[in-house]
Design a protein that fits this description.
- By secondary structure, this protein is α/β, with parallel strands linked by helices.
- The protein is 43% helix and 19% strand.
- The protein has a single domain, classed as STAS domain (Transcription Regulator spoIIAA).
- The longest helix is centred in the middle third of the chain and has 16 residues.
- It is globular.
């Protein structure tokens, strides 16, 4: 797993599920931190024992396009390796962003992390 000093994305693991918790929008971080952590988040999914992804929005109200693009790439990468992805813990504003971008048609939204983890494992 990643170094504990991640600033942009807190990463956790629950068995075969990678949990990504964005810590804020890109404007609050140095470009280099966003770039490096984006790459390392995607590389972690190269681990064959990680199959699914859950994006937990519990730490931030709304995120912009830079962070969202990383999250989308992460969800897509899980799908390419046969896994599933889901969202959880979003504010109403963030849920509206996910709906407006039609992301909830690709990856389901769940109110809690536990429900999201159960859903990706259940298929």
């Amino acid at each position: 797993m990643p170094a504990p000093n991640n600033k942009v994305f807190r990463l956790e693991r629950d068995g075969d599920v990678l949990i990504v918790v964005p810590q804020g929008d890109s404007i609050g971080f140095r470009y280099n931190d966003v770039h490096q952590e984006s790459n390392s988040t995607l590389q972690i999914l190269d681990d064959a024992t990680l199959q699914h992804v859950v994006i937990d929005f519990g730490c931030e109200k709304v995120l912009g396009s830079v962070i969202l693009s990383v999250l989308i790439k992460t969800c897509r990468k899980a799908g390419l390796k046969g896994g599933r992805a889901a969202f959880c813990n979003a504010t109403l504003d963030m849920q509206e962003v996910l709906q407006t971008m039609n992301l909830v048609k690709l990856w389901k939204y769940h109110p809690t992390r536990a429900e999201a983890i159960a859903a990706v494992r259940a298929g």
